[in-house]
Amino acid sequence: MKFKVDNGPHVKDSDNTSRIMNRLMIALIPIICFSVYKNVSIIYRMDISILEALKPLFMILIAIFTSVITEFLYSLFILKKNKKDLKEYMKHSYAIFPGLFLALVIPLNTPLLLVSLGAFIATLIGKMIFGGFGHNIFNPALTGALLVTTAYGSFISGTSNLFELDTIGSATPLANLANFNYVGTFEQIVGKFGSIFNYIFGTIPGTLGETNKFLILIAFIFLVATKVIKWRIPVFYISTVFVITYIVSLTNDIGIWYPLFHILSGGLLFGAVFMATDPVTSPITPMGQVLYGIGLGILTTILRFLTPYPEGVLTSILFMNMTVSLFDKIGLKIRNSFNKKLIYITIFILLVISTGFIINKNLNKDDSSVKILNVIKSEDSYVYEMSSKAWGVITANVTIKDGVVISVDIVNSSSETKWSHIVSNDYINKIINGQDNLDSLDAISGVTITSDGLKEMVKKVIEDYGDKYER
Amino acid sequence: MKKKFNLFNWLFDGNPLFSMLLGMCTTLAITTTFENGFVMGLSVTVVLLFSSIIVSLISKYISDELRIPSYIIVIATFVTVLEVLLRKYSIPVYEALGVYLPLITVNCIIMGRVLSFASKNKVGASILDSLKCGIQYTFAIVLLASIREILGNNSLTIIDNLSGLLGFKLSFNIFPSSIFVPSNIFLTSAGAFITLGILLGILNSIRNRGDSK
Q: Which residue segment(s) compose the domain that A321 sits in?
């Protein structure tokens, strides 16, 4: 006997796809309304013309228009549907969603032409090439958004449009966090954008869909209650991010606001609720969903902390879309055995905790390898006892007089430093002679790290002398 | 029944890049300009041709256990000869190809053709096969390189590094810069994958259409 499998999403009860999509639309409408209202109200105060103030609306409309047109032309000319089929086909392919979601996740200062290009790519490459609605492997909107933002990033962050000047186009909280190297005080990281209420009610910079967390939470409850999305992916995604950032905050003595900040800023909530749960591109087995959510959380935090891109939700969802069938297979295999479930959950929890510590370890690589051990004042000069941890540890007495280093006496150096190279190159004298312009002094090949350590040492002495003793 | 000769089918059937996806490393790295792609395609063709000739001659005397090492020595010899010649006559080309020139040795197109065809056939057939394979590869790599260069740099460099040999330069912009904005992503390896994927999709759909008729 042969089973015929219909297109996803697969739903058991009497719900059909069009009702699901209607509910998704209902959940999105308040978010769209708020984003338009927010940008109109802020820009209205800045006396900018009404056309520019309504840009969010144009973005959404243009994106929807482009994706519908693209899908129409594709099915007309490439799939070669006849007129009767075409009407039926367009009714069940939900062409507006790639464009709509794209407009909601793309940065606000994207030129309208690029929004249109993004919607075109989203529909054509993200959706139609794979066979249309229900067959795509990757989330179409995210495919388009990622391609446009990476390929034409210079136009998005460029100063060519007015929106760069106002608060909307300014650095998002996460970009600001990256500037502080991911650790900072409450005032530096949260305070710049107002209190926690600004974060919850969306009056912070960000893309159209992601800012108002309150409306997203309501949408989440509505969608779960009407069984449009499954609760497991968002819940486990967000709690994984919470746990990892909580580990980072604990080991860096930052308060509980730090993990909350990570959840409330950026597109995490929006991505978790609307993107990661897309019924076509997410696992359908319950355990698969749990593990998928945890994997998303791990990937997002790694991308946020350890790469130059402070967001990371978009990329991690696209990446995890590839692994959906894997997680479904795991979910199917372990669904009847409690022990197997326990093993998988334990492995993933261990992964989460170790991710937290790995991130933390990589965050703390500051330049404090050069230390001042002691300062001795002799008649007219100061002797600094320094230690520099380069390849091995060097300790040295650096004598400084009137702001000029006059001698560097090496007290001790461990054997890894290959000291003979330094001596044979007469490097210490080179440092003393070239101390006004240490950055241009080349390191010795073969002992680069040791010679850089020496340089850093002398630099620090000059800096410290200038701060404390120079009049 | 004799088939009518079809240039399109001749170029794409059994194309090492488009239907077997061989030699990807070289392809993705070097296809940033038309000229680089062309020179790389020619180099591979030349090495493939000479290796095939030698291998088809000596294959009788080589035991099966020693096949791969001895064929690699043959290929590497010709790659080294090519490298020395390029360095002697055109240093800019040599520098533009960089590490991917010695990497021709381990290019799976050459190894594949030599192992599967030249070692089992006579000299004449091997020459014809290697020439066909080389032309197909050159065509594919040039097609990919020109698409990438137009999208990524809005230009088509036909002779630039070779100008030392030929005495003139030939490169031009395709679109006026006011209507077309190139994107650097197509010059990266990720862009190469995107371009190759879409190109493969289009070509396969054209071929499937031809088959179904």
A: 171-204+229-366
